[in-house]
Amino acid sequence: MWGISFFTPLLFTPIGGTLIAVSFGEKVKNIIYKMFVFCVFWTLFFTFSVYFLYPSPIQKKMEEKEIKK
To answer: How many angstroms separate the CA atoms of 50 and 19, rounded?
Structure first.
């Protein structure tokens, strides 16, 4: 079940991942918990990867202003 939850945001939709988990006989509370854990994980992963790898123009201007001070 952890693997299905891990790949749900990337490969399946939340509905698709839930249907797969239910078809394997997983309990609803476990599905909700595990989906939530990996939802938070992937949210933080993508947020910080985009923030650090592709800084926005506004962020670049703010950094330039800090360097000039």
So the answer is: 30
Cα–Cα distance, 31 to 21 (Å, whole number): 7
d(CA 60, CA 2): 38
Buried b (16+ CB within 10 A) or exposed e, 8-43: bbeebeeeebbebbeeeebeeeebeebbeebeeeee
Tell me what pLDDT residue 69 has: 59
pLDDT of residue 63: 77
Helix segments in the chain, DSSP class H? 2-7, 14-23, 28-53, 57-68
Distance of CA 49 to the CA centre of its chain: 11
